[in-house]
């Protein structure tokens, strides 16, 4: 799982039919130790919005949810964080 913040949305009318009905979000990684700090796109399965901190899964785990089974999705938002505690410090609280 990766932790990140929603910074935007991708709107696409020309896409694989399996993506119909899925919202695509731009996620900026949050954890300092994350080796890949580049923003990425994830299918939203939980109704996340801009500025929210979310948990994302990638690869085959992203296709385990009912909404993404049989799709071309490689990354999915599966949870919205209420708080993040790192080394005993609250680094995010909703």
Record keyword descriptors for this entry.
94 residues, 7 strands, OB fold (Dihydrolipoamide Acetyltransferase, E2P), five-stranded mixed β-barrel
- The Rg value, from CA coordinates, equals 13 Å
The average pLDDT score comes to 91
How much helicity do the residues have? under 10%
Structural class: mainly beta
End-to-end Cα distance:
20 Å
Number of domains: 1
The gross shape turns out to be: elongated
Strand arrangement, major sheet? 1-2-3-5-4
Instruction: State the major sheet.
Output: 5 strands, mixed, barrel
Number of H/I helices: 0
CATH architecture: Beta Barrel
Number of strands: 7
The run of helices and strands is EEEEEEE
Q: What does this 3D model show about the protein?
A:
By secondary structure, the chain is mainly beta. It has a single domain, classed as EutN/Ccml (OB fold (Dihydrolipoamide Acetyltransferase, E2P), Beta Barrel). It is built from no helices and 7 strands. The strands form 2 sheets. A 5-stranded mixed barrel has the order 1-2-3-5-4. A two-stranded antiparallel ribbon has the order 6-7. Strand 6 and strand 7 (89-93) form a beta hairpin. The chain is elongated and about 45 Å long. The two termini are 20 Å apart.
């Amino acid at each position: 799982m990766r932790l990140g913040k929603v910074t935007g949305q991708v709107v696409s009318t020309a896409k694989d039919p399996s993506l119909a009905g899925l919202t695509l979000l731009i996620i900026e990684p949050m954890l300092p130790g994350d080796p890949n700090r580049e923003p990425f796109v994830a299918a939203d399965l939980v109704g996340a919005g801009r500025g929210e901190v979310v948990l994302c899964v990638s690869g085959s785990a992203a296709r385990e949810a009912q909404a993404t089974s049989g799709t071309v999705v490689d990354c999915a938002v599966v949870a919205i964080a209420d708080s993040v505690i790192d080394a005993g410090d609250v680094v995010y609280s909703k």
